[in-house]
Amino acid sequence: MADNRDERREQNEEPLVSVIMPAFHSEKTIAVAVESVLCQEIPFELLILDNSPDDATYDALAPYLSIPGVIYKKNPVNQGVAASRNLGISMAKGKYIAFLDSDDWWAPGKLKKQVSVLEESGCVLCSTAREFVNADGSKTGRVVPVTEDITYKVLLKHNCINCSSVLAKREVIAEFGMEHDDAHEDYILWLRILKKYGCAIGINKPLLYYRKSPTAKTGNKLKSALMHYQSLRYAGIGVIPSVFYFISYAINGVRKHGIRG
Question: How far is residue 223's CA from residue 178's CA, in Å, rounded to a whole number?
Fold first, then answer.
């Protein structure tokens, strides 16, 4: 798959999109994630921030590290996902930033569609629908839709923006960055962006394949719920409004995942 797809990068074309990919114990999944980036149809750079200890993640990445535009950085200690993404943001050269977790992957043409939508709409952030896949990568057919207009008020009630689906202007992401690994650091960022810049735009097509993992932050539903409430508080929402929005989040969670998740 890595034959003629790199022609544009061999011409030293400046990246339009900087893709930020933190990695941790990712040896079984990261090749699929990387392949899905390499088949995108626009100029990009892929920034891989490896927090893994001495496992096989590097070995899984070895075939890709000589490809122009693929940039690998090994962190001496596990810095956490927020700090890793912030490092990637500081390294990014593209007009836009996209995030992709090392256990997820994209559909072909995802970035091209999002760049087109952002440039036509004037919005600063774009999200897409996603399809759940099992831990082994098999598809479930369960799709989580996204509305075309994602407002700050909508986002307060329900986090419909998945991090691995996002494409946003680099200067907007860099303005706020990510923080608070003890909460949903990406949700805090989306809230801050939409509060200042207005609505985001959604593409209601499953251009992201989202791998469900019991070890992920969202794997433990009670822990994830508490982190959601904490995220609202970190974003500057008062106690009483946070309780109200948390209840709305819980109702939406049942609708999305079912009682058993």
Answer: 20
